[in-house]
Amino acid sequence: MQWRYEVTCLTMEGHSKLVILQAVRRSLRGTAAEIMRNLGNQITVDKLLSRLDVTFGNVLSTEQLFQEFYSARQRPDESISGWAGRLEALLTQLREQGSLNPAASQDMLRSKFWSGLGSDSNRMSSRHKFDAGASYEELVKYVRKIDFEVRSLETTKSKKSSVQQMTSDQTVLKRLDDLCNMFGDFKKSISEIKDRLEVLEKPNVLSQDKSPVLGEGKRPKYRKKLAILCNRCGRRGHAQKNCYAKIHADGTPLNAKAPSNQDVE
Predict the structure, then answer these.
(1) What average pLDDT does the structure give for the chain?
(2) Run of H or E residues at 70
């Protein structure tokens, strides 16, 4: 449609048919260029346009175009400008078929544009404009302004939500780091306790050395005393110079006074 519009404008500007035909020949590509080659060298602009309309032109009837127009609705991913342009394209096809009065098309555009808006908030916010009888152009401009403000607000909220989510994620990560550190300290404490228990469970070598077992290591002091035999009383456990016994081991009376060093000699 855009290409045909450009050709129509060149014709209305008064350019010669030859110049227009050369411009058309250079602009065509693919199937359209093949169609032009098949028409031969004697092709005219009007004949070429007629042939291209057969291949690429609108094939919908007037009833089908009206049905498509009245059933149309703004798509979720379609902008306000795109929605308005789609409606205008449908009405343009109806005007080209001669099935629509140009004066009535503006009222149709105005009514269908507002009722077919995909956003309920945009429709309700612009209702007062529609009820006040604003023109199609004024209504489109006003709805575009509302839509821009709503989208800007949603973008701001989305950014704030992203920042809050990021802050929340950082808080969670910090808590996880703290828990990991606490777990590491707890694990270290358990390891120290385990080492202490292993030391306590080992046999005490020092206490075993002090055990009074004959024939193992050094003899205790009291066993050394038992090995000493007193020559005065015949008893073990002390030397003669330290003997104060009054009776000999065999029952013989002894002097009460312990012998001096001279007597021992």
Answers:
(1) 78
(2) helix 62-71
d(Cα 25, Cα 12) in Å, to the nearest integer?
19
The backbone torsions φ and ψ at residue 126, rounded to the nearest 5 degrees and listed phi first, read -105, 10
Helices (DSSP H) in 72-101: which residue ranges?
A: 80-96
Structure tokens at 91: 């009405």
* Residue 33 confidence (pLDDT) above 50: yes
Angle, helices 80-96/102-115, rounded to nearest 10 degrees:
150
For the cut 50, the answer to whether the pLDDT of residue 205 exceeds it is no
Position with higher pLDDT, 200 vs 70: 70
Say which residue the tokens 């070598």 belong to: 205
Band of residue 222 on the pLDDT scale cut at 50, 70, 90: low
Q: Percent helix, strand and coil across the chain, each rounded to 5?
A: 70, 0, 30
- What is the DSSP-derived secondary structure letter of residue 232? T
Structure tokens at 110: 């105005």
> pTM of this prediction?
0.47
Q: Give the integer Cα–Cα distance in Å for 220 and 201.
A: 27
What is the distance between the alpha carbons of residues 104 and 99, in angstroms, rounded to a whole number? 11
